[in-house]
Amino acid sequence: MKKLFVALAMAGACLDASVAYAKKPVVMSSLELQQLQGRDIEASKDQVFGAVMSVLQDSGYRIQAADKDTGLITGIASTKGKMSYSLWTGFGKSKKTPIVSAFIEQTSPSTTHVRLSFVMGKVKSTVYGSGAQDEEPIYDVSVYQTAFEQINQTVFIRQTMKSPAATVASPGAPIAATPVATTVAPAAPSAPK
């Protein structure tokens, strides 16, 4: 009986340890965090700043602050809250909201470094106001990969649109022929002069 009790106690201790280990927060070194959150992009700071703003807005973030000179952008996404009650503050709403901050800096004439930080903030609002209470960093690699892929695509589109071949000619100006890889519909005939 004593052996059974000891075995059950040890099994319970192992189970408790595995549950505690499963709930342990992710701990990353500063170098691992920089590799997860940062990327170099071959474009000017102006192009990358606009691309990051566009991607964040397309992803549903409301930009709270943006400053091109410092390269800082902060945004918060919309979520639905649930009613809560506190003995001290009364009724209010509580929700978890994605929050993002971005730092964009020119590292060379043709390269810009972008660092993104995504967190889930628990926001509470009461009759006395609202504000973020707790924040959990997001360490999911796919979140950062998706964001940087979208930023790279947006930068590519912006660079393509600003290239000399993509500029729109003024009416009546001769149009230079450029090779196109896809089939293009013939242009409508111009009106006689």
TrEMBL record:
Residues 1-22 form the signal peptide. Keywords: Signal. The keyword Signal applies. It comes from the Bacteria. The keyword Signal applies. This is DUF4410 domain-containing protein. It comes from Sphingomonas aerolata. The lineage of its organism: Bacteria, Pseudomonadati, Pseudomonadota, Alphaproteobacteria, Sphingomonadales.
